[in-house]
Amino acid sequence: CAEEKETRDLVRQYGGLDPLVSLLDKSDNKELLAAATGAIWKCAISPENVERFQELKAIEKLVSLLQNQPEEVLVNVVGALGECAQEPQNRMSIRKAGGIPPLVNLLTGTNQSLLVNVTKAVGACATETENMTIIDRLDGVRLLWSLLKNQNPEVQASAAWAICPCIENAKDAGEMVRSFVGGLELIVSLLKSEHKEVLASVCAAIANIAKDEENLAVITDHGVVPMLAKLTNTTDDKLRRHLAEAIARCCMWGNNRVAFGEANAVAPLVRYLKSPDESVHRATAQALFQLSRDPENCITMHNAGVVKLLLDMVGSTDEALQEAAAGCIGNIRRLALANEKAKYP
Predict the structure, then answer these.
(1) Residue 128: what are its φ and ψ, rounded to 5°?
(2) What count of other Cβ atoms lies within 10 Å of the Cβ of residue 47?
């Protein structure tokens, strides 16, 4: 029942969280333990419940159940830790309770549901630098990367989402990524996936990978530009946002700006500005700003009606969006002025 927010609130309001946590001490009865950890996992989807779990020291109890338990218990325990780890303080508690090594260890398993949950938990923990140091030392990022080869799209997507914070918080992320033989080729090849969630997560990972110039050069050689361009006709806003971020970052290398234009990625991006989602606007404006540094792209986006759409966004309260929109309009305007000067010297 706790799949539903209303139920999660009722369980808390009627004092149900405390007895659930106390059931974790009865770890001999595996069926009861699986049921209790399952209820805790679903209740932990609500931040208010996570707060109560913190007070009850549930994190420490859950960490102690990460070893020597049947899989049906582990799936739930790891699911619960993944939800709790959305809260910064708990990421520290998991580390202090010694939870990072057993979590990383579970990345080598085969149970699909467990892998989906454990990648999420490791990813959430990785958003903190001290945790990331431990994950890196235990070769956790390499394990996540190898899960991209898993046949299950849910596992692939979950692993790719987890790789994002790892790259953001690793000491020398560029070097780390380069050390995975065939790793860049593998992640680019996932852009052929049929699954929206895999595509969105892989685009997010590529946006992070492309921050490193050497790695951007490598993924460019593996054909990342035409593959990203091919996805631009999507109407899925989550994918649009991460795709636009990836395109913006990949513009920073060689001839990629021009190549995106030649692969017809520019006009479809302009349509993203009509999406109701503000985060799509921000990523798209940043991509268009990068693309607008090439004169051909300026003409394409101008013909697609980009100026009117961007003018509204120059007044946005989101500074990144405001700046990118203004920068893009500025580039289009400068090109128009240069053309007028050439025509009427």
Answers:
(1) -115, 130
(2) 11
CA distance 183 to 210: 13
Query: Is the model's pLDDT at 85 over the cut of 80?
Result: yes
Burial 229-249 (b: 16+ CB within 10 A, else e): bebbebeeebbbbbbbbbbbb
Q: What is the DSSP letter of 24?
A: G
Do 83 and 41 meet the contact criterion of CB atoms below 8 Å apart?
yes
Distance CA 211, CA 8 (A): 40
Please, what is the Cα angle at 280 between 265 and 127, to 5 degrees?
Answer: 110
Instruction: Output the pLDDT for position 59.
Output: 96
| CA 42 remoteness from chain centre | 22
Angle at 91 between CA 150 and CA 88, to 5 degrees: 115
Helix (H, G, I), strand (E, B) or coil at 86: coil
**Are the C-beta atoms of 202 and 164 separated by less than 8 Å?**
no
Closest CA to 291 of 327, 321, 251, 322: 251
pTM metric for this prediction: 0.93
